[in-house]
Amino acid sequence: MSQKYYLLRNREIPNIDQMAVYQSHGGYEALKKALNEYKPEELVDLVKKSGLRGRGGAGFPTGMKWGFLPNDGRKRYLVVNSDEAEPGTYKDREIIEQNPHQLIEGIIISSYATKAREAYIYCRGEFLFGAEQLQRAVAEAYAAGYLGENILGSGFSVDLKVYRGAGAYICGEESALLESLEGRRGNPRLKPPFPAVAGLYGGPTVVNNVETITNVPAIVTYGADWYTSMGTAKSPGLKIFSVSGRVVRPDNYEIPLATPLRTLIDDYAGGVLPGRRIKAVIPGGSSVPLLLPDKLDTPLDYESVLQAGSMLGSGGCIVLDDSVCIVGATARLVKFYREESCGKCTPCREGTYWMTDVLERIEHGLGTEEDLDTLMDIADNIGGKCFCPLGDASLGVLVSAMKFFRDEFEAHVREHACPMGAKLYDTVNH
Amino acid sequence: MIRLTIDGQEVTVPEGTMIVDAAARLGIDVPVYCYHQALGPLGACRMCLVQVEKMPKLVTGCTTAVTEGMVVHTQGEAVEKGRKGVLEFLLINHPLDCPVCDKGGECYLQDYTFEYGPGRGRFQEPKIQKVKNGPINDLVLIDQERCVLCQRCVRFMGEYVGEPHLLLEGRGVETVVTTVEHQPATSQFTGNVIDLCPVGALLSAPYYHKGRPWNIERHSTICPHCPVGCSSLATTRESHIIRMEGRPVPDRDWGWLCDRGRFGYDFGYHPERITDSWVQQKTTSAAQATRDVAEWMQRTLTQYGSGSIGFVLGGHFTAEEAHLLRRFAHDVAHTDHIAMVRDVKGYLPLSLNGTFEDVAQADAVIFVGVDPYEAVPVVHLKLRDRLHHFPQLQVMGVGPRRLTRETMPGQDYLIDAEDEAIFFAKALASRLPNDSRVQALIASIQDYSLPVSDADLEVFGQKLLDAQHLTLLWDGENSDMATVLSVLADVRENPTAVLPTFGPVNWRGYEQAGIDPQYAAVEDLLTKVRNGDIHMLVLWGADLLREFPDRKLAQQALEKADYVVSAQVVPPLDMPYIDALLPVATWGEVEGTYVNMEGRLSIGAAGVQPPGQARPTRSYVVNWARLFRQEWQDDAWDVFDNAEGDVLIRADAAVASEITLTRPATKPADGVWTVIQGAWVVENGLPSEILEPRETEFVGRISPDDAARLQIGAEGGYVQAQTSEGSVLIAVRPDPAIMEHTLWIPRGSRHDWAQHLEGVLTLMRPEEVPSV
Amino acid sequence: MKPEWKEWAREFKEQYPGANSALMPLLHRIQAHEGWLSDETIHDVATLFDLPESYVESVASFYSLFYRHKVGKNVVHVCVGLSCALAGSDHLMEKLEHHLGIKEGQTTADGEYTLLEAECLAACNAAPVAQVNLRYFERVDLERPEETLLGTSSEKEVTP
Ligand SMILES: Cc1cc2nc3c(=O)[nH]c(=O)nc-3n(C[C@H](O)[C@H](O)[C@H](O)COP(=O)(O)O)c2cc1C
Ligand code: SF4
Ligand code: FES
């Protein structure tokens, strides 16, 4: 399928991670345009008009978020969230490793728009190569005069630093990220105040996802109308979907929002392996409820996916086929939250611990009928009662799996064993 | 003010109040673990879930501030289910060993589980294993398995005290509370975490397995160790005090204690406790000693007439006991020679005496000669509390050493103790040169120069005048300060309050009982003994050689008196001069009133029997009266008559009629060490076996530079002091608060060498001392 | 304390305007050189930044990539996220355990390798995935994982 790329331009242009290559393909022209032709407020309006929504998971309108910054003369910060650790999501990593200059260009434009004097990229600790790429690209941008004092003679100045996390999924949550960036344990902060009012070092702060910001140069170049010409009125534009699991071509796909899920899986990702059927799809990263095959025609936009009973989230799409034990898959995902719970609040810390144990027991044939009810009750006791959204995130797959595949859970209990051999991967079968 | 409705009841509270606190005003108890009003909201435990109308989910009452018209439900199905769920979560990794847990019966987890908890356990998986009964230090134990990770202890030590000796280690369900590098926590406030811990994770080591809720009693009392007199609870079992806990007083006191107060309750049954009477070096029964002493008194009276017996009070007696003694002295022993032992010369008129509310309101505080952290530790916490709410708080120290510290930062004015009053006077004069009161103040010291620049004086003077609410803590060392303070209060337009940090702890109570608190009174009395005008000396709790600064006078008086009678708890330094030593009941054994440094009246409870033959002051007095063939009649004296509520009524401040300052004698020549003294509650004379592991022998302190020169490490070492009177081996350690060529020693120390160390010429390493 | 740590601490402190932002970068760099963060290191770092030791320890112990126990020269992270699990990461882990003669979480006696689980490494398209000293190894051969992962000594972690 031939396609034009706006975000993953590295797929068309080799070595676009190099400044010279990026520039020779129109790189940093959007920045010049922004600085020459727009006042900061006009850029905020442009982004508002484009309808761009945050790609970090929550889908909050970006222009509106920028508009929340209080106008009180305090120093402002832009923080880019590159802590990508949501199972099934790997789009930001491709951008920072392969197309870092577009992100940086987006950061400079966004800083100009939000009048931020300092910007940070908080890069997941495991992304060592990504951080190196960013560092190098940032240095190139400084050398080219795109960062630092009086950028391109515009009078606008911004500094950008790359900050490495050190292994903690919770630091993707924006307030935990800020804590970490300030050199503390990554425990989420009490809100209010929200980062817009009191964020990094107490200053007004915008936190945006890597993909969100990478959209900005394209919007400046091609205009808001171009952006809204894709997707739906409420979910316009482009989105990268990371497809993984039981498909022929697991990969990142940059497609317009509202593309049907079936198109993504079958046409782009090549469908499931021969002889297999889709059993369920996690459409938006590990925190969202499962969709069953009957929802494959759902357009991938925020509203439609919500309507279908799940969430678009980060766009990490994990496909489970009929060879996958749903109990095992659920256990695996819940265990992730147990490992990554920061431990601050009781329901998340203890609840994910408990659920993981129960699920693993069921998976290995040691569960009881009662365990199933207990599981649902634990989920109910976590739901809506945690300090931050991580606790709730641990429930998306579990609760939907119990709803759609209760018989499979019961079979585990009845047969005192996993009907599929308690293995998520079968070497013989493959 | 915000109006809202909670469970159908309306309440009006200040803006910023959290739902749980608003509910508390209505007497509605919302269960909490992590929340503590002193520490502020955290929102970690999720126990305090409540329902707020128009909000989609339950909210935590500890992190949600009230809003106008809010409607809150602290009950109902959703709330109860939420609480039950949280409790169940807390219990899954909790060992459920309540039957062997010291907090059993005093535990929020147990209480809430009983009240709201799940009926039976559904959790069948193995619990996470962590450290059980590990040490926080010698006094506090931690059972990490029982911990619910509410973070109260960590936040208290780190944010509140500012001594972050506890930390959260690890992440998620593996998180534990532990100490730095797993080494003992050394803060003097560690015991508070026992009270703060809502479960049985932090335990008192000395109380470990000593009591169960059904075999103990808890008595409301006060702590007798320093002039703060912290409100506390004494736990008794079988006539032993086996624990002290803080006792919060709503709207006034969080109930913190320092470790000295919390763990030093065992002086009453210390091995050295006097339980028999000694008459002329021989043990005898208390009854016989009482008769002997009565006979001596009669003999003295017969021989020398009225006024021939002198009484000096000290120790930890109640105001009522002081009153009894004074009446006895007057009515039966026919003497008005009664005074209290004083270790400093200053006296503060009640009219200037502030309360802790003046700390809570202060925008500027000045430590005159005293580091509250050492002398009145819990005041340090009250100051920290103020600093939290009012970070602009100006803190200043005036004295011969640094008095501010890392946890109470501020500016130090290094001024010799004898110059403190002059420093204040000159500072005032620099800003108010034309004020007649100030002019009078400096009249005699105009040309006396201080080692501070005029600019510094002016800045300090301006601060004295600018402060909106000025609160001073005063050690009483420089007696002229009283005059300065009264002028200061008079010239300032805004409130000025002074908190005296000197002892004896109940001196205000003794004063109320009619005993002259002035240094001159006791000095005069002892002079009369020395001069042979008083022939018998009754020391009620006073230990002259330890406590009275004029050692020579004390010694001469002790030598001269025909009879010296001493009622004590532990052997006094005066022992060699004593004719009769009487075992007397003390704090914890007698009920009565104590008046603290605020002038606040509190009742000390009687929870235990005095040991052996120790008996209350009252028994002695009543018996003697009977032996004098006088019927003892109680009178109607009541110290509360002088109080409004529980605080002594202040008369209007009147500026002292005589406003002059004494000119200090010329300074000793260079090369002589300056010896300074200060109150250090850890070393205030009352022995404690429990606290022994935390005590240091190296109670003297010198500057780090001097220590380096003497090759003394951080923990301390011995040096030989050459004094004008000879050579003494002393134990010192470095302290950055002490200036060079200065030796600091605690007042009233238990270490004999530390008494009256005067005229120190040199300090040397012991091996360098030339053999004599 | 290595003499250069002081220099690094100063460098990082100058880079960040506030709070203790310099802490994590310094821990990263020291660990890149020392392999792990010992109690002494924590102590030294606290001294360098004039921070309470408890603070530094509490922060360091929160993050799984800060090693508070001695690790091998090569740290092998096997991704156990769902997508990798669907591509056989459990099998991969077993093979490595068997080959190295250690269990997950352990270090070989010769101090060469430490074997650890990693949560989703954001490379699900290339499952199963592993990292050696944070360098990615994609589509690891399940039959002979040791050949790619353990064969050649991998590039050392350097802190950007
Ligand atoms: C537990 C948790 C993990 C998160 N992880 C990420 C992440 O890795 N990357 C990200 O961009 N946003 C993540 N988010 C969302 C952020 O909190 C925040 O909403 C986002 O960075 C805002 O950027 P956006 O508006 O551009 O989406 C996470 C949120 C939660 C609750
Ligand atoms: S829900 Fe609670 S424990 Fe979980 S990550 Fe958020 S704050 Fe931490
Ligand atoms: S008391 Fe409210 S969350 Fe702990």
From TrEMBL, chain A:
Domain NADH-ubiquinone oxidoreductase 51kDa subunit iron-sulphur binding: 327-372
Keywords: 4Fe-4S, Flavoprotein, FMN, Iron, Iron-sulfur, Metal-binding, NAD, Quinone, Translocase
Enzyme class per UniProt: translocase
Reaction equation(s) it catalyzes: a quinone + NADH + 5 H(+)(in) = a quinol + NAD(+) + 4 H(+)(out)
Coiled-coil ranges from the UniProt annotation: none
Necessary cofactors: FMN; [4Fe-4S] cluster
EC nos: 7.1.1.-
InterPro entries: NADH-UbQ_OxRdtase_51kDa_CS (IPR001949), NADH-UbQ_OxRdtase_suF (IPR011537), Nuo51_FMN-bd (IPR011538), Nuo51_FMN-bd_sf (IPR037225), Nuop51_4Fe4S-bd (IPR019575), Nuop51_4Fe4S-bd_sf (IPR037207)
The keyword Flavoprotein is assigned to this record: yes
Pfam families reported in the protein's UniProt record: Complex1_51K (PF01512), NADH_4Fe-4S (PF10589)
Record-stated family: Belongs to the complex I 51 kDa subunit family.
Role description: NDH-1 shuttles electrons from NADH, via FMN and iron-sulfur (Fe-S) centers, to quinones in the respiratory chain.
Protein name, UniProt field: NADH-quinone oxidoreductase subunit F
Species of the source: Sulfobacillus thermotolerans
Automatic annotation (TrEMBL), chain B:
SUPFAM superfamilies: 2Fe-2S ferredoxin-like, 4Fe-4S ferredoxins, ADC-like, Formate dehydrogenase/DMSO reductase, domains 1-3
Cofactor: [4Fe-4S] cluster; [2Fe-2S] cluster
Domain 4Fe-4S His(Cys)3-ligated-type: 78-117
Highest rank taxon of the organism: Bacteria
Domain 2Fe-2S ferredoxin-type: 1-78
Keywords attached to this entry: 2Fe-2S, 4Fe-4S, Iron, Iron-sulfur, Metal-binding, Quinone, Ubiquinone
Tagged with keyword Iron-sulfur: yes
Domain 4Fe-4S Mo/W bis-MGD-type: from-to ranges: 216-272
Protein name: NADH dehydrogenase
UniProtKB/TrEMBL annotation, chain C:
Pfam families, A to Z: 2Fe-2S_thioredx
UniProt cross-references to InterPro entries, sorted A to Z: NuoE-like (IPR002023), NuoE_dom (IPR042128), NuoE_N (IPR041921), Thioredoxin-like_sf (IPR036249)
Cofactor needs: [2Fe-2S] cluster
Keyword Transferase in annotation: no
Keyword vocabulary terms for this entry: 2Fe-2S, Iron, Iron-sulfur, Metal-binding
Metal-binding as UniProt keyword: yes
Family affiliation: Belongs to the complex I 24 kDa subunit family.
Designated name of the protein: NADH-quinone oxidoreductase subunit E
Organism: Sulfobacillus thermotolerans
